[in-house]
Amino acid sequence: MNIYFAAPLFAKSDLLYNAEIVNQIRATYPQVTIYLPQENAAINDKSAYADSTMIAQADTEKVLESDLMIALLDGLTIDPGVASEIGVAYAKGIPVLGLYTDSRQQGAENQQKLSALKTVAENQFHYLNLYTVGLIKLNGEIYSSESALLAGLANYLSEEN
Question: pTM here?
Answer without folding.
Answer: 0.92
